[in-house]
Amino acid sequence: MSADVWLVVGLGNPGPSYAGNRHNAGFMVLDLLAGRAGGRFKAHRARADVLEGRLQGVRVVLAKPRTYMNESGGPVRGLRDFYKVPVERLVVVHDELDIPFGALRLKRGGGDNGHNGLRSITRSLGDKEYLRVRFGVGRPPGRMDAAAYVLKDFSAAERKVLELEVDRAADAVESLLTGGLEAAQNTFHAG
Into how many domains does the chain fold? Predict the structure, then answer.
């Protein structure tokens, strides 16, 4: 791949038992983007499912690590090295507790905010200056443990609009690729 390719990674846990979990919002967005790119994920030796294609005319590698969330860094680093993608063109789509459900935030760099997938990626890359599309899942109710909360499926009320929110997050990824961070923030932070 040449230097103009982007690597877009969705975070989640593999297997059907996790498919509807809040922690798998990244996978949901990547599945939708794969449909838009008109392709299918294929196994890659970097321990990820990968699709090479185009979104809005931009060359992309869409990827879903096949490891558990807390080991996402190995596959991301392997893909970055394999496709020779600079960290500036790495986008990670993930669930975010500190943002209410129905809101999106885009940023470059920053801490991991207790997110095991981000912590693993930052550690493996030795760099935190990648782009993030943060899919709001909100805080757990009452005293529920955050780790337990993200491993639960979206609520019935959330599921009624989940498809719309995943669609909006996919739009945000495409906007980021075509127009840059600031323009995407201006569009998607309003919601």
Answer: 1
pLDDT in tens, 14-27: 999 999 999 999 99
- Would you say 135 and 157 are in contact if contact means Cβ atoms under 8 Å apart? no
What is the domain-level CATH number for residue 156? 3.40.50.1470
- 151 backbone dihedrals φ, ψ, rounded to 5°: -90, 10
1 within some domain: no
Residue pLDDT, tens place only, 92-135: 999 999 999 999 999 999 999 899 999 999 999 999 999 999 99
- The residue segments making up the domain with residue 17 are 6-188
**1: pLDDT strictly greater than 60:** no
Is 163 a member of any domain? yes
3-state DSSP of 4-16: CCEEEEECCCCCH
Residues annotated as catalytic are 23
What are the pLDDT digits (tens) for 176-186? 999 999 999 99
Phi, psi values for residue 91, rounded to 5°: -120, 125
Backbone angles phi, psi at 88, to 5 degrees: -65, -20
Residue numbers belonging to the annotated binding site for tRNA:
18, 68, 70, 116
Residue 31 lies in a domain: yes
